[in-house]
Design goal:
With 255 residues, the protein is α+β, with helices and mostly antiparallel strands. Helix content is 16%, strand content 38%.
């Protein structure tokens, strides 16, 4: 299943992608206790809740609950987002099609594409991590760091926002080993390949992190699928990170 968050009357609302349409999943399920946000779904993603979602999406009348012209938001605000080498500051999160504000003093932005694995079950030293049991799903992350004209980091209290989206695809829906990814800048392809070794590295990194301290439902860990590769981004550049099964996370650098 592929889950999104859309704007419904100024509120974040859980949706599912079905045949290219966004379906209001809580309305399709029709039970008052069903979660109305993706964060709520992840935190209760054991047993009957996911069964209810699958049953609703399999019904013949599911498209009766499709959303007309949905405005897609950040799908999920992770309880925490771990990423080796990232700055240790609280980062604001933005969604697909949102502009990345240009920081004061920045000559350019250093762009790093990432794939994030979202936990659907707690894992710790006492409960060793198993992808098939602990993972909820995957999403895309666009990470940025401001640089001045000399290439030195431009530091701010909250850093440059991280972009997440456009959806979260459940772990049973994709084979991360063969998931194909692509990066485009202003329409030009600058990187492509499959997740392959990065999927194994994600699992190993999550397992290692859980040995240091418990990880909770909704925590996420992100890695760059292209190793240490990064790109220089200039004002008004359009950056697209796409992956099979997840879609395209598109953002424009601010002026």
């Amino acid at each position: 299943m592929r889950f999104v968050t859309y704007d419904r009357g100024g509120q974040r609302r859980l949706g599912a992608i079905f045949e290219g349409e966004v379906v209001d999943l809580p309305d399709a399920v029709g039970h008052p206790a069903f979660p109305t946000t993706l964060e709520g779904l992840v935190s209760s993603s054991r047993g009957t809740v996911m069964d209810a979602a699958r049953t609703a999406l399999a019904r013949d009348d599911v498209l009766d609950w499709r959303v007309k012209r949905p405005r897609i938001l950040t799908p999920l605000f992770p309880a925490s987002l771990l990423s080796p080498g990232s700055l240790d500051v609280e980062r604001r999160v933005i969604g697909p099609e949102q502009d990345v504000p240009w920081p004061d003093g920045a000559a350019w932005l250093e762009y790093e594409p990432k794939v994030a694995a979202v936990l659907g079950l707690e894992t710790s030293r006492e409960d060793a991590f198993e992808p098939s049991r602990h993972l909820f799903g995957y999403t895309l992350v666009s990470d940025w760091q401001a640089r001045d004209a000399s290439g030195a980091p431009v530091t701010h209290a909250d850093g440059v926002p991280i972009a997440i989206g456009p959806c979260v695809v459940t772990a049973d829906e994709v084979d991360p080993q063969v998931m194909y990814l692509q990066v485009k800048i202003d329409g030009d392809e600058v990187a492509k390949g499959n997740l392959n070794g990065t999927a194994r590295s994600l699992a190993k990194t999550i397992e290692a992190a859980s040995m240091l301290g418990p990880l909770a439902r909704g925590d996420a860990l992100a890695l760059n699928p292209f190793g240490a590769r990064e790109w220089q981004i200039w004002p008004r550049a359009v950056v697209e990170l796409g992956a099979e099964g997840i879609g395209t996370l598109r953002n424009t650098a601010g002026s």
